[in-house]
Amino acid sequence: MTIFVDNRGSGERDIADILVKKQYPVSVQHIDSGDFIIGDLAIERKTVDDLIGSVMSREKGHNFFDQIRTMKDTYKKVIVLIEGFIVWEDRQLAGIIYALVDGWQIPYINTLSKEQTAIRIGQLHDRYGSASTHRVPPPAVRKAYTESQIRWMMLQTIPHIGSVVAKRILDKNPYIFADTSKVYDLNVEGLRKDSKDLLYKVLHQ
Questions:
Q1: Residues paired with 29 in a beta bridge
Q2: Fold entry, domain 3-128
């Protein structure tokens, strides 16, 4: 089974070259959703810095959780591959990963280099790509989400902010994240001080 690789990222193309040298069947082309596709498995690759930046992105189609939702709507299995050293003391990064695993029920793999990433993708091919089918990745299934829904998802990347507290924050601050110079009302029932401090830092960094 062919490993389809999205052609828009230089990192993905580098990994495709490594996979070819390891004699894996690879096709580099435009993919609507996901960076690597093996049958019904979609893999989204993010460096640590890209992961944090994409979570905070308000650009349509570039927000991490918007991308993840599209992948879940399109493929049967989704894995996020995080490339780089994970500093678990970074509460924002840890919150994103907890939200991914606990909230979205999506597993992740951590690698430290493109070479390691290629090895893990090769192993996933060995596990999921044994079938002889050569199915081309399908068009992405994109559902429309409001700005409010995206802000609600972004809030839940902060540790200890769940869906209920996120909704309370949005009820008081419907345009949160829209203006970093604005002072938002974070006096919300159930919002822990450490989560409130981190959210304030994210809003005004």
A1: 6
A2: Rossmann fold (3.40.50)
Q: Which amino acid is at 161?
A: I
**More confident call, 133 vs 28:** 28
- Tell me: pLDDT of 87 over 60: yes
pLDDT value at 133 more than 60 = no
Between 144 and 46, the more confident residue is 46
Region(s) of the chain under CATH 3.40.50.10130? 3-128
Q: Please enumerate in sequence order all residues whose Cβ is within 8 A of that of 71, keeping only pairs 6 or more positions apart, or say none.
A: 33, 34, 42, 44, 78, 140
Contact 64, 104 (CB under 8 A): no
Is-above-0.85 flag for pTM?
no
Residue 92 corresponds to which amino acid? Q
User: What are the tokens at 11?
Assistant: 């990192």
What's the rounded Cα separation, in Å, for the pair 3 and 16? 9
Of 121, 30, 106, the closest CA to residue 75 belongs to 106
Identity (one letter) of the amino acid at 188?
V
Vertex 78: Cα angle to 75 and 81 (nearest 5): 145
Domain 147-204 has CATH 1.10.8: no
CA distance 20 to 42: 19
Task: CATH 1.10.150 in the chain: give the residue spans.
Answer: 147-204
